[in-house]
Amino acid sequence: MAKIKYTKTELKQQRDALRRFERYLPTLQLKKQQLQLEVRQLEAEIEAKAKEESDAREDLRSWVDLFAEPITFEDYLQVVAVEQTVNNIAGVNIPVLEDITFERSLPDLFHSRPWLDDGLDLLEQLSRLRCERLLLEEGHRRLVQELRTTTQRVNLFEKVKIPETRENIRVIRIFLGDQQTAEVARAKLAKDRAVKAEAAVS
């Protein structure tokens, strides 16, 4: 517990601090709830995206033998740009995929495999899904980190700061009350002495 002074000024400071903590705590609790909700939603989105990617990979099984043929896909399909924006959720910047630009070279129809166009479509789809999932996972990681920090702050306020400040206020009030009682008692004793001294003189 921090060292406190047993003065009226300290009592006022402790009361002001308690008001600040009690005003700030609901905001933190609300942020914590919002983050928990967003984390759960992102987990569902990641799961759905992983399922979509898994289904696309399952579709790829029928192509596996064809992909075993020697072919350089980089000659026909390349990622040119990945555009992303930032979405702010409860004060956390989350990356969001806007678009992926692919550059496709037209294969020579006489010398390329007949399945190449469909194969490139599938690779493009898988690349897009993986990129979306990775960005969702990064957003999830950031939200979980912020949720951990916010939870620590909520616990600090609920379990440490507010109880500690209330106890400080209680102790200071008892001390000041005892001091006031002692002053009243001293004043009465001084008055009684003065009355007795006056009576002895008369």
What this model shows, in words?
The chain has a single domain (8-192), classed as Helix Hairpins (Orthogonal Bundle). The protein has helices at residues 8-61, 64-67, 116-201; strands spanning 77-89, 92-104. Helix 1 runs antiparallel to helix 3. The protein contains 3 helices and 2 strands, in the order ααββα. With 202 residues, the protein is an alpha+beta fold. The protein is rod-shaped and about 135 Å long.
Question: How are the secondary structure elements laid out?
Answer:
Layout: H1 8-61, H2 64-67, E1 77-89, E2 92-104, H3 116-201
Antiparallel strand pairs: 1-2
Helix pairs in contact: 1-3
| Helix and strand pattern | HHEEH
Overall tally of domains = 1
Please count the beta strands (DSSP E, at least 2 residues each). Answer: 2
Q: What do we call the CATH topology?
A: Helix Hairpins
Residue ranges: pLDDT <50 for 5 or more in a row? none
Binned, the helix content reads over 70%
Radius of gyration: 36 Å
Coarse structural class: alpha+beta
Count of discrete alpha- or pi-helical segments spanning 4 or more residues: 3
Average pLDDT: 87
Main pleated sheet? 2 strands, antiparallel
CATH class: Mainly Alpha
Strand content: 5-15%
CATH architecture title: Orthogonal Bundle
Distance between the termini: 57 Å
Mass-distribution shape: rod-shaped
User: Strand order within the widest sheet?
Assistant: 1-2
